[in-house]
Amino acid sequence: MSERSTSADERGALANIGPQQVLGAAGLVRSGRIVDLGLPIGPNTPSPAHRHGVVRFMTRDGGDYAAGAQRPGGFQFAEDTLLLPSHSGTHIDALAHAWHDDTLYGGHGQETIRSTTGAQHCGADQLGPIVGRGVVLDVAGDRELAAGYAIGAEELQQVAGAAGITIEHGDVVLIRTGWLGRMGGSAETYFAGEPGIDLSAARWLADAGVAAIGADTFAVEPLPAPGETVFPVHQFLLTDRGVPLIESVVLDELASLVDGPFLFVALPLTLVGSTASPLTPVAIL
């Protein structure tokens, strides 16, 4: 049992997914094919320079038996412990991840995030299961978008219109830029910058009532950031509108398969007080 009950207001825009949206999304399944949208997590998972990488400690392995460990009844086993940042690989930013003017989403003060307790409000333990209608907006198509390329509302609307997609209340919108597919093999290159949605696109999606926004980039928004701003899309979506961000989503295969909405499922870990959770989102076609 979680140490804290999930509060709808601390889920932010995820609360836009209700039973009606879940039932509608379930009805989109046609073939039963499952497409994995998550990166593998292990010591080789790319990590930015400011964040520790994933570390594995084997607490029991084959070497122990080679060295004479007991094997009662012939039984042998292996176990390991992982040390990893909550923002590892494909992950979802909880609403406690970023804020501005000393205040988190919902009016909670920054003092509610402490080293001893983690996030007392809006942490990953408040996210809950995500099951709803997913859509891919393939902005890149066959193009190669450069780092810093800003995807505005008008371009997103054009992409959605060309694909025959109308953004609906409670949608999980996934933005394909092609960046992870092209740059994900090198941490240095992948984390050096990225294309992404600008504030106009973020506002358009939030106004449409989306539940969450994901992308095949590590920050969803363009980097380097325009002008002298610092993560303006994070500030707006997480703090002002309560829209969680799903980062480093694997989208190339999915974009080649779908021509409309699909059932999206992602189960954040109930990490009490954490600012994010690794997850493996899937599309069920």
Task: Describe the protein.
With 285 residues, the chain is α/β, with parallel strands linked by helices. The chain has two domains: 8-42 and 86-284, Glucose Oxidase, domain 1 (3-Layer(bba) Sandwich), CATH 3.50.30.50; 48-84, no CATH class. It has nine helices and 15 strands. The strands form four sheets. A nine-stranded mixed beta sheet has the order 1-15-13-7-9-11-12-4-14. A two-stranded antiparallel ribbon has the order 2-3. A two-stranded antiparallel sheet has the order 5-6. Helix 4 (153-162) crosses helix 7 (199-207). The longest helix is centred in the middle third of the chain and has 10 residues, at 153-162. The mean pLDDT is 95. One of its GO terms (molecular function) is arylformamidase activity. It holds the Pfam family Cyclase.
Secondary-structure map:
Blueprint: H1 8-11, H2 19-26, E1 34-36, E2 55-60, H3 62-66, E3 79-83, E4 91-93, E5 113-114, E6 118-119, E7 130-138, E8 150-151, H4 153-162, E9 172-176, H5 179-183, H6 187-190, E10 196-197, H7 199-207, E11 212-215, H8 232-241, E12 245-247, H9 252-257, E13 262-266, E14 276-278, E15 282-284
Helix pairs in contact: 4-7, 7-8
Question: What is this entry, summarized?
Answer:
This protein is α/β, with parallel strands linked by helices. 21% of the residues lie in helices and 20% in strands.
The description of the largest β-sheet is: 9 strands, mixed
Shape descriptor: globular
Element pattern in H and E? HHEEHEEEEEEHEHHEHEHEHEEE
- Any low-confidence stretches, pLDDT <50, length ≥5? none
Counting helices, strands and paired strands, the structural category is alpha/beta
Beta content? 15-25%
CATH topology of the largest domain: Glucose Oxidase, domain 1
- Kindly state the number of beta strands: 15
Query: In percent, how helical is the residue content?
Result: 10-25%
The CATH first-level class of the largest domain comes to Alpha Beta
Total separate domains: 2
